[in-house]
Amino acid sequence: MGESEGKLHAIMISVPYQGHINPFVNLALKIASKGFSITFVHLEFVHRKLSNAHHRSTTTDDQVDFFSAARESGLDIRYTTIHDGYPLEFDRDLHFLEYFNSLYHDFPARVDEFVGNIIQSDPYSVHFLVTDTIYHWPAAIAQKYNLVNVSFWTEPALVFSLGYHWDL
Known about the structure:
7 helices; 44% helix; Rossmann fold
């Protein structure tokens, strides 16, 4: 790729649960090691939970950042948060159905605005969107901004097969 074309930049957004976040972190590290720029997007409430757990286990007030050591080793990984529309005190586990419906119906507008801001702030990079396969809205956002949409399945293959063949 020539200098004038810009760097490849992945905008990565997972479902906010550990079984989805961990594979996304691993994928982010892997593709960053291939020279890509990464913007890893966490939800604010997840970041807060991780920061609180980190503060209880250490004596520092540092903010949680999965990728600080990776950046020190030269990888281009940015860590940021996005708001999901609920107050931080809202119990997402207690109100799981309401919350998950919001991730499907209300959250896409926030992601759309977020992606638009990233593209506007860095128009020379070649951006692409990496999101959890469970989300239905990334294709529309990717199409709006003329991005490649990478759908990342984080579950075991058996879970995919069960869902795919559910009607049987």
